[in-house]
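lol so apparently i was supposed to do this last week
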Amino acid sequence: MKIELAIIGGTGFYYPGIMDNSEEFTVKTAFGETQFIGGTYQGLNIAFLARHGQEHAVPPHRINYRANIAALQKIGVQRVLAATAVGTLKEQLPPGTLVIIDQFIDFTKNRPQTFYDGDDEKGVVHTDFSEPYCPQIRERLKTTLNNKGSFFAEKGTYICTEGPRYETPAEIKAFALWGADVVGMTNVPEVTLAREAGLCYANLSLVTNFAAGISPRPLNHQEVVEMMEDKLDLIREVCMDTLISLPPERKCHCWQKENFPLGQ
Ligand code: HPA
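anyway here it is w/ hypoxanthine bound
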């Protein structure tokens, strides 16, 4: 099965749902094994990978991001659309808003971050992140969301924390001063590894709650899951419709580098 398109589902998004001919696969990589579901949507093959596992058993700081991205790369995936749940730092982006992320700030602390550890023939590599998310997929996401009449923000800065704890109000205040719009625990290093692997990658975030100190009550995982459940059908459709409507040719810079160690 040739699969060039993939969805990575986050909290509350554990199954592809609307794909036909779904089948589970295991892929072995140099970084460990990864499971994904392969299937078809409107005749096109799509891989669906649940970042936290299907039972939400893997916390953000223990996700094997390298195995996930290396596995997608290995099966021939070229384009990835990742869904994440986020807290909001902005009144203008209330819970329920979908955000097409265009920048990130990395506040993670203890995760393997790269395919280039400098200890093999690949050597030392510094990857450009002037445009961290694929502009072609982002543009298609806008079109799909407009067609659906959904309320969304066409850009936003995601700050990625280490988790699994939520933030303090003081951290959220500081992040807002840095220019962050939303906060989550999983987009880094997923986005950076995807670029290192030469994959086009975009992120669609659902705002599930006001961030700590902005929210009138303590945060809990249940409200995140409930908001995600509310919007899950929409997110599934938006992700699938966006991927299948992409023109076959990748007109972006995401993969136009000479230094992809996993081979593009
Ligand atoms: N903080 C961090 N991660 C999150 C949040 C949050 O408020 N909401 C959903 N994921």
